[in-house]
C-alpha cells in the first residue's frame, strides 16, 4: 500500500508534469472507482492544472478550482506515460481504473491489482467534502506537528496500542502499516505498548523517529520516476516485510505477528526486551 512518503513523492512527480498543463480528457474504466457525480468528469476538460498537493494519502489535482482527488488504497498505483495510446479504455477490463490525458497526449493511468476494488476517485470543488479527508488527523511532517502535538495525541489515545495509533488516519495522517513498523523499530518501542504509557523521553524518541523516518523515505525517493517508487520503498525497509532476516541494528531475527488481513514485523531485542509477541491472528485489536 502506498503510504505518505510514496504519495508525497508522487505529488512532487506529478506537480512538475501537470502544473499549467491543460486536461484534455478523463476516461473512466472502473465505474466503482468514481465516488462522486457532481461535478462530472467532463467538468475537468479544458482546465489548466494549478497545483498538485496531498491530504494524508490522498492526491489532489487542482484544476482551476475543480479538484480530482484519488486514494490508491492497498493495491492501486499511478503509471505515467509521456505519450498515451489513442485506443479507448475498455470498461471493466483488467486493472485499469482511470486515465487522465493532457493536451500534448501525455498523462497517467490509475490501475488497481487484485480482485478487491478500493481505489477511490472524487471530483469536487471542496476537498473537505471528501469523507476521508474531512476526518484526517494532523500531518506528521507539517511544521505545526510538534512534540507537544504528539504527546497530546498519545494521551488522548489512552491504552490503545502504539501500532494501531500510528496507523489510524484519524489520529495522524499518512502513516500506514509499513512505516509504523519502521518508526517503532527506530524508536525501540513495542508495537503493543499502550500509547499513554510512554515516558516523556520515550515520547521524544518516538517524535524524532516519526519525523526522521518519513523525511528520509521521501529523500530516498527524490527524483525517482513513479514506476521506481515501489521498489525503492521495499529496499529501504529495515524490519517491515523482512520476517526471518537479521535485524540490521542488533543481528537478532526479525519476528512477525499476523492478523486477519495484515501483519507487523519487529525486532525482539531492539523493541520487546528479547521477548516474542503472541501471534494474534484472530485479534481485532489492530486494524
From TrEMBL:
Record domain FPG-type: where: 238-272
Domain Formamidopyrimidine-DNA glycosylase catalytic, first and last residues per copy: 2-119
Catalysis performed (reactions): Hydrolysis of DNA containing ring-opened 7-methylguanine residues, releasing 2,6-diamino-4-hydroxy-5-(N-methyl)formamidopyrimidine
Organism the protein comes from: Microlunatus elymi
Entry keyword GTP-binding: no
GO molecular function (one): lyase activity
Gene3D superfamilies: 1.10.8.50, MutM-like, N-terminal
Family: Belongs to the FPG family.
This protein's name: Fpg/Nei family DNA glycosylase
GO terms classed as biological process: base-excision repair
Residue stretches spanning the membrane: none
InterPro entries per UniProt: FPG_cat, FPG_N, H2TH_FPG, Ribosomal_uS13-like_H2TH, Znf_DNA_glyclase/AP_lyase, Znf_FPG/IleRS
Keyword annotations from UniProtKB, A to Z: DNA damage, DNA repair, DNA-binding, Glycosidase, Hydrolase, Lyase, Metal-binding, Multifunctional enzyme, Zinc, Zinc-finger
Residue stretches in coiled coil: none
PROSITE patterns given in the database record: FPG_CAT (PS51068), ZF_FPG_2 (PS51066)
Cofactor: Zn(2+)
